[in-house]
Amino acid sequence: MNEYKKILKFARPHQKYIFGSLFFNLLYSVFQIASLGTILPVLGMLFGTIKSEKFQSAPLYSGDLVDLFKYLKAYSNYYIQSLVDDYGTLNVLAWLCVITAFMFLLRNLFRYLGSFLLINYRVGVTKDLRGEMYRKVLSLPVSFFTESRKGDMMSRMSNDVGEVEGNILGSLVELINAPFMLISTLISLFLLSTELTLFSLLVLPVMGTMIALIGKSLKKDSHEAQNEMGTIFSIVDETLKSSKVIKIFSAEKIMDNRFMGSMNKWINSSIRLGRKKELASPISEFLGSVTFLIIAWYGGKQIVVEHSIAPQDFLVFLGMFFQILPPVKSLSQSISNVQKGEASLHRVLEILEADVKIEEVAEPVSISTLEKQIEFKNIGFYYDKSNLILKNFSLTIPKGKTVALVGQSGSGKTTIANLLARFYDVSQGEILIDGIDIKHLKLKEYRKLLGMVTQESVLFNDTVYNNILMGKPDATREEVIAAAKIANADSFITNLPDGYDSNIGDDGGKLSGGQKQRVSIARAVLKNPPIMILDEATSALDTESERFVQDALEKMMENRTSLVIAHRLSTIQKADWIVVMEKGDIVEQGTHQELMTQKGTYQKLVELQNFE
């Protein structure tokens, strides 16, 4: 129940549609009962039970509420017979048919308007739900995505939200409509014959119990099917990203087996789910037929033997009872659908309620620039206590200086960059900006001080111009071009088919590695942050591309505080300070010349690369 309360908060902005739907459904119920007053006289005339000798004078009302329907029915018959005496049977019958048709038209019009407004409600809630999920994804820390499969995330945003819309929000139409239809129909049935109505309702709890048992089983199978769909999305995502590796190692068969294995699990769960879902309708229809036959026998006994109900009343009763079966059926089906959708709702709420581990303090400190220095003070970091990444790491980066981190893979260099960007929080110690712990700074304002260029250029399926503009959304075109020139990117951009307005494809696939990196640098240059983080920005490039990119980086780092993570040591010889790391510790630090003179780890790394 708590899960439904959480999802219903998205309904508040659209509650006007709910109230409007309730109003029209109330009118539908009123006209459902009112239609009895027009159809009963029609059938009475056809069966010959309304005769002039029976109504010598107008009936009198006793004043009891219980007798109100009997009085209205008798007075209606008296009035109809008076019209028959004055205008003839066929004329009155024709007008009664027209009025009855109009009553049914209004009744169904109000029913449609009630459903129409609920559709607006359903679509509006779905839009808000997807929007909230996307905003949540944007706010989640990097650590969340290292532990989650992207395919599963895509499945939750597409399939699971679709299931919530179709099964829970979609069923809401019937969950609101059906009770109104049931209540108005039951009132009509009780007015016609209390005894017959009570008898006919005996079998309905049996039907509801059967459907509830099926619905409980639906929830389990639906959860399995949705989880497996997340796995399928992950496999497809990996295939699209790794097509070259798959082909070169002839791994098509391996990937196909993985995909079909997961697909078979999904099919088995879906088949079980579909079978049980389809079972609900035949069971309710069978029980409804049995109910109708029992009522027909009991009602026939009341007409033929006991003479306690008129034939036209019984005929209307049967018609009304047939009208009660569809809402009962749709209500039970909706309950089953809601139970089926609970699994998807749970998966959606897992994302919406995911713990945002990077949080601000109650009253964070504003920051607009770097005044003095960045200080790493006795930093320790681990994912779990058995997997220590950094220990007692201390380093000071004065404003305007370039500090390079070098060392073997796994020494903790990239972790330092991630901690500075506050993608993760330190396990021990603190990172200070001008003496203030970054945990106490306003996160958005702090990240405005940072620029980052990574080994893998992250570009979007958009134009070159819009990719660069992301660094500063309010920049002018002249500023974008100026940033591209600093990044040595303007020359190749102007040679593209549409220049800066050329689309670069998915992940910048239409550009070379060096070109993509220079666009990434241009984006960072346009942002013009006081602190720049370069994470092996040239390690994936060929020699010529590296020369262009390195030149662009050097231009960008002028008069800027920079943390550089380098794989190719030739690119950081001009750094103000070089820190050599090994297994999370600092083993050497100094300028290039000082470290070469020490003839330690740094010199060995340089000689190894020169030998290569």
TrEMBL record:
Residues 374-608 form the ABC transporter domain. Pfam families: ABC_membrane, ABC_tran. InterPro entries: AAA+_ATPase, ABC1_TM_dom, ABC1_TM_sf, ABC_transporter-like_ATP-bd, ABC_transporter-like_CS, P-loop_NTPase, Type_1_exporter. The keyword RNA-binding does not apply. The chain crosses the membrane at residues 21-47, 92-110. Residues 59-340 form the ABC transmembrane type-1 domain. Keywords: ATP-binding, Membrane, Nucleotide-binding, Transmembrane, Transmembrane helix, Transport. It is a multi-pass membrane protein. SUPFAM superfamilies: ABC transporter transmembrane region, P-loop containing nucleoside triphosphate hydrolases. It is found in: Cell membrane. GO terms for molecular function: ABC-type oligopeptide transporter activity; ATP binding; ATP hydrolysis activity. One of its GO terms (cellular component) is plasma membrane. Gene3D superfamilies: ABC transporter type 1, transmembrane domain, P-loop containing nucleotide triphosphate hydrolases. Its main location: membrane. This is ATP-binding cassette, subfamily B, MsbA. It comes from Chryseobacterium arachidis.
